Amino acid sequence: MLDHLSYTAPEPKVISGAKQDWELVIGLEVHAQVSSNAKLFSGASTGFGAEPNSHVAFVDAAMPGMLPVINEFCVAQAVKTGLGIKAAINLRSAFDRKNYFYPDLPQGYQISQLYHPIVGEGEVIVDMGPGVARRVRIERIHLEQDAGKSIHDMDPTMSFVDLNRTGVALMEIVSRPDIRGPEEAAAYVSKLRQIMRYLGTCDGNMQNGNLRADVNVSVCPPGAYERYQETQDFSHLGTRCEIKNMNSLRFIQAAIDYEARRQIAILEDGGKVTQETRLYDPDKGETRSMRSKEEAHDYRYFPDPDLLPLEIEQAWIDGIAAGLPELPDAKKARFVEALGLSEYDAGVLTAEVENADYFEAVAQGRDGKMAANWVINELFGRLNKEGLSVETSPVSAAQLGGVIDLIAKGDISGKIAKDLFEILWTEGGDPAQIVEARGMKQVTDLGAIEKAVDEIIAANPGQVEKAKANPKLAGWFVGQVLKATGGKANPAAVNELVAKKLG
Ligand code: ADP
Ligand code: MG
């Protein structure tokens, strides 16, 4: 099985301070909303954008005496995600209460998995360009509940609470501090999103907050990170700050850059970075302190007495593993190795699984590179321009495949094929029938081409003299013949005939 391509690690981002160089060290805690119709411990709907407080079961509202019941589907989704990042799945995990007060958390605690997460160590390969990738280790994935939403900007004197999101299942995916720059952090989130979208375990919608990240940033002198890697001793790294709740790739990058420079200024000034939670303000482009870093004991974590430890069987996991789709790295490697695509093109085509499926339908039984060119340059180019996607494309994979067949058979030239694509885009229809009906077929009839060549030569004696002295000018005749035949003459045949006639 092709796993992923061989790669070398990118250079870490270096920021030059006033006194010395600094490197960045970043670890992410990504919160991914589990794709599921029902919540983690209740049957209430997870539908987005509903009337406030209309998707709230008694247990979500923490009515006295209500008991949580685990949603097996959400557990399966977490296992699937774990398998997708090649992680160890824990046969036994357990839920803990993380106690804190918040108006949108009626229970007074969040049910999470601090001590015994369902998913253990895994990895994500983060592509940073052809042949360059970073391996980011995953520490764990645990299941937990989301909180509700407090709304402070609807009324001048009152705040409102919407509990629709309360109790929705989240996967918290915790990375090791293996990310070495802002671009890598964004690429890491993109890669996780891509994997989960392939798996169908999280829709990755960042605008709706279905995928958001807490970003931990520290800086250290060159060489310190290598010592951490050798020893796994965190004391080689700088003190980190955590930037909470980021749901935009652009802001993640800007926040990391700002935060690293803020820490460097403190350190070069002889100060110390205090470990704390910070918030990014996109309007100012700054991070500001939210609270000093809390410790686990502040939350008085303890095993939730309402929930038994979660025990799952290996056979159940094996069943989920057997149903996993082909994942992005494997698909990309297959496109490169089996279809001869460049790594770049394979990356573009596998970005979204729907795109990859469309491409494969076009490439099936045809030349892979040619199919890739047409899908990326003509189809994606046009879809982007018109704000469409492959699902809403006016040209189907079968139609595009038909165009490629006509080129391969020599029925139409590449130039005519673009006209044909345009007709398919605006009017639809069957490519072969259109070419037949509108006389778009390439002329390969040598007699007809020869006649056209002879006519051009007869009409331009001056040019003929020049071309005889300078063979490079033969191209002019080829152009004239193609023009005279409406682009339908087979260019190779025209070239050959012109060369022969000019001697
Ligand atoms: P906590 O549970 O207190 O937030 P964790 O050890 O779980 O602490 O770490 C949270 C995140 O911070 C992880 O993603 C981890 O990789 C990252 N992290 C830990 N140390 C550093 C550091 N020195 N610099 C950057 N990120 C770090
Ligand atoms: Mg944390």
Automatic annotation (TrEMBL):
- Which UniProt keywords are present, listed alphabetically? ATP-binding, Ligase, Nucleotide-binding, Protein biosynthesis, Transferase
Tagged with keyword Cell membrane: no
For this protein, the record's Pfam families field holds:
GatB_N, GatB_Yqey
Q: Kindly state which reaction or reactions the protein catalyses.
A: L-aspartyl-tRNA(Asn) + L-glutamine + ATP + H2O = L-asparaginyl-tRNA(Asn) + L-glutamate + ADP + phosphate + 2 H(+); L-glutamyl-tRNA(Gln) + L-glutamine + ATP + H2O = L-glutaminyl-tRNA(Gln) + L-glutamate + ADP + phosphate + H(+)
**What family is it from?**
Belongs to the GatB/GatE family. GatB subfamily.
Tell me the function of this protein: Allows the formation of correctly charged Asn-tRNA(Asn) or Gln-tRNA(Gln) through the transamidation of misacylated Asp-tRNA(Asn) or Glu-tRNA(Gln) in organisms which lack either or both of asparaginyl-tRNA or glutaminyl-tRNA synthetases. The reaction takes place in the presence of glutamine and ATP through an activated phospho-Asp-tRNA(Asn) or phospho-Glu-tRNA(Gln).
Protein name from the UniProt record = Aspartyl/glutamyl-tRNA(Asn/Gln) amidotransferase subunit B
- Please give the superkingdom of this protein's source: Bacteria
Q: Where is the Asn/Gln amidotransferase domain?
A: 357-502
- Which EC class heads this enzyme's classification? ligase
Molecular function (GO) terms for this protein are:
asparaginyl-tRNA synthase (glutamine-hydrolyzing) activity; ATP binding; glutaminyl-tRNA synthase (glutamine-hydrolyzing) activity; transferase activity
Q: Which InterPro entries match?
A: Asn/Gln-tRNA_amidoTrfase_suB/E (IPR017959), Asn/Gln-tRNA_Trfase_suB/E_cat (IPR006075), Asn/Gln_amidotransferase (IPR018027), Asn/Gln_tRNA_amidoTrase-B-like (IPR003789), GatB (IPR004413), GatB_C_1 (IPR042114), GatB_Yqey_C_2 (IPR023168), Gln-tRNA_amidoTrfase_suB_CS (IPR017958)
Report the record's Gene Ontology biological process terms. Answer: glutaminyl-tRNAGln biosynthesis via transamidation; translation
User: Any keyword Protein biosynthesis?
Assistant: yes
Instruction: Give its E.C. classification number.
Output: 6.3.5.-
Query: What do we know about how this protein assembles, alone or with others?
Result: Heterotrimer of A, B and C subunits.
